[in-house]
Amino acid sequence: MTSRNRQRTSTVRSRGRRSRVAGSAIGLCLVVGTGACDAGNTGQETSPTTSVTVPAPSQDPRGAAEGAAMDAYRGMWAAYAKAGLTANPDEPDLSRFASDGALKTLRNGLATYRSKKQVLKGKYVLDPQATDVALNASPATVTVTDCIDDSAFLVYNLAGKPINDVPGGRRSARATVTDLEAGGWKVTSFGVQDVGSC
Fold first, then answer.
1. β-sheet bridge partners, residue 39
2. What are phi and psi of 155, to 5 degrees?
3. Are 7 and 123 in contact, with CB atoms under 8 Å apart?
4. What tens digit of pLDDT does each residue of 118-131 get?
5. Domain extents for the chain?
6. Which of 124, 194, 115 is nearest to 157 (CA)?
7. Which of 97, 116, 169, 187 could form a disulfide with 195 if both were Cys (CB 3.0 to 4.6 A apart)?
8. Between the CA of residue 177 and those of 11, 74, 140, 163, what are the distances in Å?
9. What is the pTM of this model?
10. For residue 74, which phi and psi values (nearest 5 degrees)?
11. Rounded to an integer, what distance in angstroms lies between the CA atom of residue 34 and that of residue 127?
12. Is 42 exposed, middle or buried (0-12, 13-18, 19+ CB in 10 A)?
């Protein structure tokens, strides 16, 4: 089994519950964004972490790019989970793994939760794959597709009560991870679809 395959399934925990419209914290994109949102969500329960696995040195430029992109993608969701615990749009790790439209969407979503006195709690499961690598593009990009299970990543009020009892589910997601050179690989855009899309 390759290291990439070993990293395929990732479970992260955080605070989250959403309205009936969204069904879960991942669904915030469907409410805050336009259509399928251009950003991301994550969750982690106790002591959320944004540490990621650093890929071993590789002679294969494509493999190195895929590894760096997957780290950025997973890191973005972990940072979102950490930020979700207090609905903090200014969480520093968000900009460590996301930029441009992705960062803006994450921050806007968190700010919306904070304004409603809501936080994110629970866990979600990732299953990302690098489906397209454009090393000759300027800048280089990697497309990551995923089927995120956010059944247990939901939105709560500050008293710890769930906003409702509508569960999430499996959602198709697609992200563009870009080599920003000095800034490293970061997620620059992403979209999350409705429950049942994967």
1. none
2. -105, 135
3. no
4. 999 888 899 999 99
5. 3-195
6. 115
7. 169
8. 20, 11, 9, 32
9. 0.74
10. -65, -40
11. 24
12. buried
